[in-house]
Amino acid sequence: MKKNIVVVVSILVVLAFALSACAPAAPEKVIETVVVEKEVEKVVEKTVVVEEQAADPMMAAKEFLAGKKVCSVLPGPVNDAGWTTSAYNGLINLRDNFGMEIAYREETKVEEAEAVMREYAEAGCALIHAHGFEYADQIDAVAAEYPDIQFFQTSRCFGKEPNVIGNCYSTGEGGYFLGMMMASITKTGKTAYIVGTSYPNLDWQPEMSRQAAKDLGKDVVIDEVAVGSWGDPAKAKELTKGLIEQDYDVFVLLSDAGDTGIVEAIREGREAGKDILAISWVKDKNYLAPEFVIGGWEEKVWKQMENSAVAFATKGTPLGQDMPQGLADGVCGLNPTYGLIPPEVEKLVFDAYHKYAEDPTSLPNLQVRTDL
């Protein structure tokens, strides 16, 4: 009687790989075990094409940054619910999602910044961050002394070779859309930005607000009033009360810790019978007063900080680079209005916003600046 013979055949494998970095891997022959229930041997070849997968740049950046330290000089307290809080959130993102160690100095005066950054450099910080336009001279001075360390500054459109990245928003976009809103909701024709301090990159926002009002055919006052500090609620409240007495009825919250003072002044004005609204800037501040604070314009500082760190990681050594970014880069945009403005105004603003996002030429008078 004929018996079936089970033969196990192992096929030797030959792998050939191209030595060129640009050439794809050669086809691979794999070892395959074949069970043959016949009296003859059977040889089976199987060819597998191995495709080299491109490395994930974000994963590579995370591997490069993990364990390194990022150190920040901050102008205000991390709980100011505005500009400094946004930088703190950026540090937390780098810590939690990139494995970095973090350090920061709150309420750093301009005259202190250079010494603080020099201490950071000596302490082994791989990235040193200055959060604000006011620190430009100081970061440039220290960066020149430590060319092997990556420095980066927010609210500054221009970098500096060989190791300073300048992060800023492509300024003008937020100002234009909030200008449309301000001009359409004011009943007195008087509105104002209440800012901590004035500087060129910020100043262009109210300028574009005025342009937006003009484009709508609205004769509206859009002022910029500086508190003189990013952490003085009492002064911010005093200034706002004075403007309310002059019939200003729409305010943009742009004074960081001072915003709580603006909100207090508006609340008191509303209790006295005045119809006053506030519009957020930097982040959605509706939680400060849900009954009258509109979501407004958000600046995603955490994303800009991440982009700087990833640019450094991608190169592998410090770089000097201009990094102005805007709506198209996902670092800013409009927040909800919470039903605090008329539906037709919301539709007007958001329709223009979405159309511009698809086609920036749709608003020819919106001038974006990246040189401030």
Describe the protein in words.
By secondary structure, this protein is an alpha/beta fold. It contains 10 helices and 16 strands. The protein has a 6-stranded parallel beta sheet, with helices on both faces. The chain has a 6-stranded mixed beta sheet with strand order 11-10-12-13-14-16, with helices on both faces. A two-stranded antiparallel ribbon has the order 1-3. The longest helix has 16 residues. The protein is globular and about 55 Å long. The N terminus is likely disordered.
Helix content: 25-40%
What is the C-alpha radius of gyration, as a whole number of Å? 29 Å
Mean pLDDT score: 87
Low-confidence stretches: 1-54
Largest sheet: 6 strands, parallel
Strand elements, count: 16
CATH superfamily of the largest domain: Response regulator
Main structural class: alpha/beta
Number of discrete domains: 3
Strand content: 15-25%
CATH topology of the largest domain: Rossmann fold
Number of helices: 10
How does the overall form come out from the CA principal axes?
globular
The strand line-up of the biggest sheet is 6-5-7-8-9-15
Query: Cα distance, first to last residue?
Result: 95 Å
- Under CATH at level 1, the class of the largest domain stands as Alpha Beta
Tell me the CATH architecture of the largest domain: 3-Layer(aba) Sandwich
Q: Order of SSEs, N→C?
A: EEEEHEHEHEHEEHEHEHEHEEHEEH
